[in-house]
Amino acid sequence: MLGPTRVDTNSLKVTSALETYGISVVRKSVVGDLQQDLVNEIRYAFQRADIVITTGGLGPTEDDLTREALTEAFGLTVDVDQSIIQYIEGRFAARGWVMPDVNRKQGNVFRGQTTLKNERGTAPGFHLEVEGKHVWVFPGVPHELEWMLATYFTPWLESSGGRARHRRVLKIAGLTESGVEERLKPYYDAHPGELVTILASGGQIEIHLIGESQEFITPREAEIAEIFGPRLYGYDDDTIESVIGKLLKDRGETLACAESCTGGLFGSRITDISGSSAYFLGGAICYTAAAKSDLAGVDAQLIREHGEVSEPVARALAEGIRARFGSTYGVGITGIAGPTGGTPEKPVGTVHIAIASPTGTEHRKLLWQGPRTIVKWYSSQQALDLLRRVILTDTHK
Helix (H, G, I), strand (E, B), or coil: what is residue 112? Predict the structure, then answer.
């Protein structure tokens, strides 16, 4: 069961694996932690589909009831696999811990069915074959599920005669979903009836192309790339952070940042990329006027004249942090994340971003609507995209 603080990403991973092989998802459900509800849903899905996939409910706690529900739904027999218990004990011992007795529950397996070892966690998965249909049972921890899909499920789909369809994801920054749709009109006119999926998420847009062959995908990808030009920042598993990292590495250049309203989020995203120490020199969270002066060298008089949230201060943050670290590029971000602190002249959501480079300083003023988390995330996203575009057009070398 998903709590109020959990977002369902597992079904998206499963759907992606299925659609790659042309298998449509006809039902998706979220079920509470009551065994009878789970049993009813499993039976209902089993009657209507050839493949049923469950995620979650394989842990050691009282509300982890997927095994019990499957046992009741299909009349299965459960045995204890001591090798799984020993494996779990070893994982705990490697951390200097003693396995609690409740984890022994995870050694329960289905007699005559396939148990799937989980090398990313303690809960094994299962592949059940019942009445000629297939039931795949995976843990709910997202990185464990992702590994098990790649290790067991995708190879099974392929070995079962599934023909993989080709997918290409093109990632667009700096445009709204409707803006992307508007620009794609000539493409739609050229390819009537072909399906193009547009997904908006976290300040970026994804365009999904799916076809039976790479020969189908390649020319269409080129058409879309021509339409969006520099707005197209990456493909498939690229993130804007990874694209920036590759650009900086390839050019032998470096980066530093001075953040106010984003509170270190920009630097955190940059350092999400392995090897970022090769180009990220460091940063400062300049949350007060004094910090802006002390850490990034912003003139206190400039702050008094224009205010902390202003174009001159954003520029000074970017230029000051670049000088402080001796980096090729400096990023300055200052704004009002809310929900308090706004004024009629500078409402909540006002953000100034600046990128300092050897050839000058670029600035953008933004106005976001939404809660504090949205203002922070979208500001970091826009700062990353502006940095990317400055790097691409910088000709100082």
Answer: coil
What is the distance between the alpha carbons of residues 191 and 217, in angstroms, rounded to a whole number?
12
Query: Which among 205, 224, 233 has a CA at the least distance from the CA of 384?
Result: 233
CA angle 303, 306, 308 (to 5 degrees): 50
Cα separation, 231 vs 212, in Å, equals 27
Give the pLDDT confidence of 213-249 residue by residue, as tens digits. 899 999 999 999 999 999 999 999 999 999 999 999 9
Q: Do residues 289 and 303 make contact, with C-beta atoms less than 8 angstroms apart? A: yes
Strand 232-235 versus strand 166-173 pairing type = antiparallel
Show the tokens assigned to 72.
Answer: 């009741």
The structure tokens listed for 299 are 């003139």
Average pLDDT of the segment spanning 117-125: 96
DSSP 3-state assignment of 297?
coil
16-30 pLDDT tens trace: 899 888 898 999 999
Angle at Cα 19 formed by Cα 15 and Cα 24, nearest 5°? 85
SS3 helix, strand, coil % of the chain, rounded to 5?
A: 45, 20, 35
Specify the pTM: 0.78
Q: Is the pLDDT of residue 298 over 80?
A: yes
Q: Do you find a cis peptide bond into 371, omega within 30 degrees of 0?
A: no
Q: Which of 15-19, 169-173, 282-286 has the lowest mean pLDDT?
A: 15-19
Angle of the 35-48 helix axis to the 66-74 helix axis, nearest 10? 50
| DSSP letter assigned to residue 184 | T
Burial (CB < 10 A; 0-12, 13-18, 19+), residue 15, is middle
Where do runs of H (alpha helix) occur along 307-371? 311-325
